[in-house]
């Protein structure tokens, strides 16, 4: 690896705990930073040590509120003006990724706008995990290291040693992801067909496939209100499934998600720490992504392939 003095790991506010884990895995002290807050809500982040000539890795998930994205942009700008050699944005959860296209007239393509903002700020590389849409990588004119939580979830599923295992997608859009898991785990796939009248509200759902007597693993890139997951789990149990678990990379858990999960027939919901929250449900299990991000940073610094970090 390059001299450790030339690597700076910076934890922004939304993912400071994850940044510390990454630093510990790399055996590097996390960079000292501070934020000045003005009475009107404006804030000014700063580096409290020199970063001149360094590879700066800024760790920040761009979850709401929008201040998290703004903090990342300001830190990129500060790093550029402080003569950092390379600025790498480590974005465990890439916000606005659901706005990857125009689904109807007169709406923005938010993911492209965020990409433009990051490039304009001066970022040299992006590291992220399980983008809601793979094509977002093409929105950038800099290298994008797109990591997959399957590297963490597949070993966990294997350790469960479940018989009659079947992989399920909670919607038609996730069939590719489900098929990939199923291929590796040598299992079949079922799909939930859902119809929405409006965002975050499902009007009807049906299962395509047989789940009777099966232990079901629902796979998805995120869990937001948990409406889809809980409705799918309950429907599968009602159709004869022995158990239903969910593995979802990004645990957003908005609205009454925890209440829904607690009242559902889900055995557990496994998420990563790309979004740091204090979870109010005993059904939720968190797996850290620190090691995979640390390994990727190490490989980038050594100019080596990151393929070893891809299980699927």
Key attributes of the depicted protein:
5-stranded parallel β-sheet, alpha/beta, 14 strands, globular, 7-stranded mixed β-sheet, 8 helices, 312 residues
Supply the helix-strand structural class.
alpha/beta
What number is the mean pLDDT?
94
Question: What radius of gyration results from the CA coordinates?
Answer: 20 Å
Q: Element order, helices and strands?
A: EHEEEHEHEEHEHEEEHEHEEH
Sheet having the most strands = 7 strands, mixed
What does this structure look like?
By secondary structure, the chain is of the alpha/beta class. The chain is built from eight helices and 14 strands. It has helices at residues 16-26, 67-81, 110-121, 150-160, 175-185, 227-238, 257-263, 290-301, and strands at 7-11, 33-37, 43-47, 55-59, 86-91, 125-129, 144-147, 165-169, 188-198, 201-208, 215-223, 243-251, 268-272, 284-287. A seven-stranded mixed sheet has the order 10-9-8-11-12-13-14, sandwiched between helices. Strands 1-4-5-6-7 form a five-stranded parallel sheet, with helices on both faces. Strands 2-3 form a two-stranded antiparallel ribbon. The longest helix is centred in the first third of the chain and has 15 residues, at 67-81. It starts with 6 loop residues before the first strand and ends in an 11-residue tail after the last helix. The model has no long low-confidence stretch (mean pLDDT 94).
């Amino acid at each position: 690896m390059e001299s450790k003095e030339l690597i700076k790991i910076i934890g922004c506010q939304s993912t400071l705990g994850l940044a510390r884990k990454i630093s510990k895995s790399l055996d590097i002290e996390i960079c000292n930073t501070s934020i000045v807050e003005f009475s009107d809500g404006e804030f000014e982040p700063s580096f409290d040590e020199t970063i001149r000539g360094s590879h700066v890795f800024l760790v920040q998930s761009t979850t709401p509120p929008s201040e998290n994205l703004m903090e990342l942009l300001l830190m990129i700008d500060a790093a550029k003006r402080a003569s950092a050699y390379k600025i790498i944005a480590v974005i465990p959860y890439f916000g606005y990724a659901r706005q990857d296209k125009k689904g109807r007239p007169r709406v923005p393509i938010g993911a492209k706008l965020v990409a433009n903002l990051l490039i304009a700020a001066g970022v040299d590389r992006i590291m992220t995990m399980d983008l809601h849409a793979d094509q977002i990588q093409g929105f950038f004119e800099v290298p994008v290291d797109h990591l997959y939580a399957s590297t963490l979830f597949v070993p966990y599923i294997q350790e469960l040693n479940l018989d009659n295992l079947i992989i399920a997608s909670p919607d038609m859009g996730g069939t590719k992801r489900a098929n990939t898991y199923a291929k590796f785990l040598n299992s079949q796939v079922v799909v939930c067909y859902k119809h929405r009248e409006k965002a975050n509200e499902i009007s009807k759902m049906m299962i395509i496939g047989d789940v009777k007597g099966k232990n079901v693993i629902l796979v998805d890139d995120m869990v937001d209100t948990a409406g889809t997951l809980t409705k799918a789990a309950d429907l599968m149990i009602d159709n004869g499934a022995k158990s239903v678990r969910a593995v979802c990379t990004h645990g957003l858990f908005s609205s009454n998600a925890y209440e829904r999960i607690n009242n559902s027939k889900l055995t557990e919901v496994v998420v990563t720490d790309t979004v740091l929250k204090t979870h109010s449900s005993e059904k939720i299990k968190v797996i850290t992504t620190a090691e995979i991000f640390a390994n990727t940073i190490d490989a980038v610094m050594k100019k080596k392939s990151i393929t070893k970090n891809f299980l699927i």
